[in-house]
Structures are given as C-alpha cells and as structure tokens.
Design a protein that fits this description.
One of its GO terms (molecular function) is zinc ion binding. This protein is of the alpha/beta class and 468 residues long. It folds into two domains: 3-70 and 399-466, Roll (Urease, subunit C, domain 1); 72-375, Alpha-Beta Barrel (TIM Barrel). The protein has 14 helices and 17 strands. Helix 3 (112-128) runs parallel beside helix 4, helix 4 packs parallel to helix 5 and helix 12 crosses helix 13.
C-alpha cells in the first residue's frame, strides 16, 4: 500500500442505500486499488498502522467535517459539442443536429489546434466538477479523437473514447462515404489508441476505445453489422443512442420498418457491453429486452427535458434492477456537471409522479389509494446512479470497497477557516470538536447534495493517484 486515509467515507453500494462509515481507515495499494477499509479501532487497522511497511507513511486525515466519496461518472458526453455548450437549444432533435452538432464536430475534425483547446479546457472542467470517468461521443476523424484520449490520459482521468461511425450522414460535408470506409477508419483508431496506451502499465491505462455508431438513422445495416463483429473481435464496448425522441424514432421506423431497439437487437448490438444513451421511451414491453440483454443506459435528464417528448422512467428502471448511469449529454444538456444531472433527475421524477397523480385525480395524500406505483426518486438514489450505477455499468466499481479502484473525491462541508460551512453551504448546527452522529452526517451530506459546488471539492484521486 502506498497511502492511507482516515476519517469519514460515504458511498452508495446499492440504490437507496447511503453508507456512512465514520472513524475508518482506508488503505490504497501501489496499483491504486482499495486494499483495506475498516474502523480505525479494529485490530486490522491497528496492525496496519503499526506495520513496518508503513513506517514513515502518515495517514491523511480528512478533516472533522469532510468525507471521501466516489468520483462521478458521466456516461454520455459529446466532446466536440463542448465548443458551443450552453447555446443552441431551440430546435427539435433532428433539426438541432444539422444546425449545431454536425457543424461543431466538423470544425473539430478540420482544426487540430481547436480540438486541443476545446478538449484541454473540457478535461480541466471535468476535474473541477469531480467527474472521474466519462464515456465520450467524439467526431468521425481519427486525429481529433486521439487528441481527446491523450488529454484524458495526461490529466489522469478515465475515458471511453468513441470515434463516431456514420455512413449515411444527412450532411454533405460531414460523414463517411461507405460502410467499408467507416470500418477501416474505426479500425485505424482502435490500432492507434491501443499503440498509445500500451506504453503505460496496465493499471494506468485510463483510456480505452468504445465503438460508436451514432444512431440508426445515419448508419446502414452493413455498417452496424460490421461494427458489432469488430467489437466482438477486439473485445471493445459499444455505445449509441436509442429511443431518444419521437422524430428520431419515427425516422427509424419509416426507413427500417422496425422499432429502434429491434434494429439494434437484430444486428447484435444489445448486450452486456452495450451502452445506450437516453432510452426515454423505455416501457413495459422494452424492459424485459433491456434486462435480458444486460444493456446499460445513460439517463440524461437535462437534455431529455429539451430534446425528448418523454422523460426516462428512472423509478421503473431502478425497481427492475436495470443498469443505469447519468449523462450530461453536452451539448443537448447545457451543463457538464453531474451534480446538476443528479438534481434534475430527482426533479423530473417528482414531476412524473405529479403528472401520474393528476391523471388519477389524486388529492393530497391519496395517491396510494388510487393505485399505481409512486414514481419519485430520492437524492440517495440519484447519488447511486451518479457514482456506483455508472461505474458498475462500465465494468468497474464505483463504491468504496476492498478490491475496487480508488477513484474518490474529497468533499469539505466545513473547515477550520469556514466553520459555518464551506462555499455555498450554511450549516448552523456544526460545532468544532463535536462529532456528528449518523443522522447528523446524513443531513449534512444531503445539504451538500442540494447546494454544494466545486468549492467543496478539496481533492480528487483516480486509480490511487491525486489528480486535482
């Protein structure tokens, strides 16, 4: 082990379970995995502290009102679109793509210096926001995606880098001329990224490719079949968009004669290594398919409010134990903050429950009498989706448990210089030298969840290495 931490540790091992461990000791191995986590008073912790292998290693004390939390995961972010994030949300999805998204991606591919500027700033922003892992949609060009991969690796952040594949683009100046060309291009990207990451020790290879057909309307069956085959041959994950908006779904049905999810399934693109963004039209018919294929879904609550006619049924997905994480969907969502997405996910769930009650004619407190399922989602469940849910869906840990990668952020609620609350927090009942009990800690963490920002983030580690 190379480092020790002592203090309070917070995580969500499963949806709805907030685990707060006070006065614990956490040890990290030389390769960046959690090797020890137990109460400081336990024999194992005391033995560790007295071990000769730890002579000279002083445990990092987290602070009286600070805690370690797993880093956030963003399962859906269009990196080139960060160029114009915060603008251009005035159109339906398919029109928006043509006017804004394709244009930005085209610029990034044509100008490597611009790609350098945009991606360097994006990566820095992700650090500030506590996002330790991102699944990216890139652009169709190989060079720009390699720039993105290198920026993430150099910054010490995890990234799944998706070079877009699209052989039926509606934009004359931005697309790939054939399925064969597209498959050769993505193969070149896979080879180049593999060559780059091979220079790092296995546990420090933080970036990897993810095969990325943009979505069914711009991909031929030939291309989708070829990408599925390539993914299996190379052991690479696959991502796309599925059932995002009515206009997109109607386009698929008119051109293919099948629903979105059935096209993907028929061509072998739904499986344990598949990530599908949005899936806002998830219903009782689709749930068994997604569950059986073990597909992970990226819930993008902010962008869905702008770009989709329906909202993702997070309550139902959690109740069915489906694999779900959060996505910012830059630039369909204007903020890269996963904290913003967590809060929006709860708001949308409450609005869905309000609409359900209104449709049943419920009065206050009588929704249970009218039947049906309460659709609310609480803040601890949203925190789970932002941390453990997203990481687990991509084959990693996402909690603070022995054997999992040590990806953590240090959150300060109050400090010696800010005894009444750090940053935006105003905490009136904290007293230096007085310990919070379990209920007090839960209340304090909830207040951070609602009102905290980057000012509360005092450190960040990925694979055991401090990056911010």
């Amino acid at each position: 082990m190379t480092s020790l931490f002592k203090g309070t540790f917070v995580d969500t091992p499963k949806a709805g379970e907030l685990r707060i461990r006070r006065d614990h000791l956490l040890g990290v191995s030389s390769e960046g995995y959690i090797a020890h986590l137990a109460p400081i008073s336990s024999p194992s912790s005391q033995s560790l502290l007295s071990s000769s292998s730890y002579s000279g290693i002083e445990p990092l004390s987290l602070g009286e009102f600070s805690f370690l939390l797993p880093t956030f995961s963003d399962l859906h972010l269009h990196a080139p679109q960060y160029l114009y994030a915060g603008t251009g949300l005035d159109l339906p999805l398919m029109e928006w793509l043509e006017k804004y998204a394709y244009r930005a991606e085209e610029r990034i591919d044509q100008d490597p210096l611009l790609a350098e500027r945009v991606y360097e700033r994006l990566v820095q922003r992700l650090k500030e926001l506590g996002t330790g892992m991102v699944t990216f949609f890139g652009s169709i060009g190989v060079e720009a995606n390699l720039i993105l991969a290198k920026k993430m690796q150099e910054a010490g952040l995890r990234g799944f880098i998706g070079k877009l594949s699209m052989d039926q683009s509606p934009r004359a100046t931005y697309g790939e001329p054939s399925a064969d060309y597209s498959l050769k291009s993505v193969t070149s990207f896979l080879d180049s990224l593999e060559s780059y990451t091979s220079t790092f020790p296995p546990h420090l290879r933080l970036v990897e490719p993810i095969i990325t057909p943009r979505f069914v309307p711009v991909c031929s069956d030939e291309l989708l079949t070829g990408l599925e085959k390539l993914g299996k041959e190379r052991g690479v994950r696959v991502q796309s968009h599925m059932c995002e908006g009515r206009d997109q779904m109607d386009m698929v049905f008119k051109s293919r004669g099948e629903k979105d999810q059935h096209v993907f399934d028929k061509l072998g693109l739904l499986g344990p290594k598949t990530l599908q963004a949005h899936v806002t039209y998830l219903d009782e018919e689709m749930i068994p398919l997604v569950k059986d294929r073990q597909v992970t879904m990226a819930h993008c609550p902010l962008s869905n409010a702008y770009m989709s006619e329906k909202q993702f049924p997070l309550r139902e997905a959690l109740d069915e134990d489906l694999s779900v994480g959060l996505g910012s969907d830059i630039a369909g969502g204007y903020s890269p903050s996963i904290q913003t997405q967590m809060r929006q996910a709860v708001v949308i769930a409450r609005l869905r429950e309000g609409a359900r009650c209104e449709s049943l004619g419920c009065s206050f407190g009588t929704s249970h009498e009218k039947g049906g399922k309460n659709l609310r989602v609480d803040w601890t469940e949203a925190l789970y989706v932002a941390t453990r849910g997203g990481k687990k869906g991509m084959g990693m840990g996402g909690a603070l448990e022995v054997g999992m990668e040590f990806d953590a952020q240090l959150i300060e609620l109050a400090g010696t210089e800010t005894p009444g609350g750090t940053g935006p927090l105003d905490l009136f009942d904290l007293r230096q030298g007085s310990e919070l009990d379990e209920a007090g800690w839960k209340e304090a963490v909830e207040r951070w969840w609602c009102n905290g920002d980057e000012r509360n983030r005092k450190g960040m580690w990925i694979q055991g290495r401090k990056v911010a």
